[in-house]
Amino acid sequence: MIRVLGIETSCDETAASVVALEAGKKPVILSSTVFSQIEEHAAFGGVVPEIAARAHVEALDGIVEAALEDSGLSLADIDAVAATAGPGLVGGLIVGLMTAKAIAASSGKPLIAINHLEGHALTARLTDGLEFPYLLLLVSGGHTQIVLVRGVGDYQRWATTIDDALGEAFDKTAKMLALPYPGGPNVEKAAQSGDATRFVFPRPMKGSAQPDFSFSGLKTSVRQAATSVAPLSDQDVADICASFQTAVTDTLGDRVKRALARFRAEYSHVATPALVVAGGVAANKQIRACLEALCAENGFSFIAPPMWLCTDNAAMIAWAGIERLRAGLAEPDAFDFVPRSRWPLDSVSAPVVGSGRRGAKA
Ligand code: KG4
Ligand code: ZN
Question: How many Å apart are CA 361 and CA 112, to the nearest integer?
Fold first, then answer.
């Protein structure tokens, strides 16, 4: 039996969780506590790093205590402490990793430094027991990537955004249309009563031989459309949202289709290939329907962990800790580990042009 306490503080969720794994059994999430700071950032239309760091300091002790209490365990029963050490906002990472170091040092437990993206990448093994290799589509406020997951610590990035992340594009579109933060759910809601054919927005990178994503040109087109019909009626806003959502779905579908074909070609021996989605944008119904259809057409199973495990949480961090312990891949000198605001999952693939411009979230 392995029981790990996980801590997540890389953006605007303060989270702690205890996950247990008994040999030969399915893993169990004994507790998962997530405190979302959305209200503290809403007035600013986005995450403010200093406010986030301060809120983590204030909340984390109580969140860890609650996660331990909900799990019915005490610190003495825990085998290791796993904490997100990057990528993300450095203030929050320092709070989480230092707290984890203190808990681990004072209780004599091992500490495991976790890459937040690895947490997202391995979640489908916690929820669905998925076997390697599989494809991961991560679409959040800070990342838009297609990653080949070959094993624990063994990732290959097949595509990334060369400018904005997809969630960021939703958030910026919302801001331009004076819709509340966070933008994604509000753009989706407005789009429901909109005419998706009224505005013809570009489909950046669609059909390109380069596998990556781009969303900043689309954002400019949204701004131009909004300016051209201002002052905006509710129907104008709905039509822009519907047209935008259709454009991003179309582009995303094209990029994912390409990756599915590559997986088929390179991993023809995998009998039941799978595409896993993670990140807040995976909640979008139009995008989800498009991905499900693509998977069905291409013989892939579509794996979407429950939404609370797709967005930021600490169960995925505790689970990544368990996976690393099992694989003998826990950092031996994690107490010396310095938080990394940038930490690519795949250190081999070269950064793409413009990839420095990413959002705050991971
Ligand atoms: O994974 P997440 O909760 O946090 C990180 O970025 O790590 O993702 C948040 C992002 C935000 O940009 C939000 O606008 C977007 O996911 N989002 C959505 C929807 N729900 C959340 N985007 C489109 N449609 C949605 N329904
Ligand atoms: Zn995340």
Answer: 21
Query: What is the model's pTM?
Result: 0.93
pLDDT in tens, 45-98: 788 999 999 999 999 999 999 999 999 999 999 999 999 999 999 999 999 999
Q: How far is the CA of 327 from the centre of ligand 1 (A)?
A: 31
- 11 CA closest ligand 1 atom index: 7
What are the helix and strand counts (H, E) for the chain? 11, 10
CA 296 / ligand 1 centre spacing (Å): 24
Helices 216-229 and 166-176 cross at an angle (nearest 10°) of: 10
Distance separating alpha carbons of residues 357 and 165, to the nearest angstrom: 9
Q: Encoding tokens for residue 47?
A: 């995450």
Alpha-carbon span 176 to 13, nearest angstrom: 25
The strand ranges marked E within the chain are 2-8, 13-21, 28-36, 80-86, 111-115, 134-139, 144-151, 154-160, 274-278, 301-303
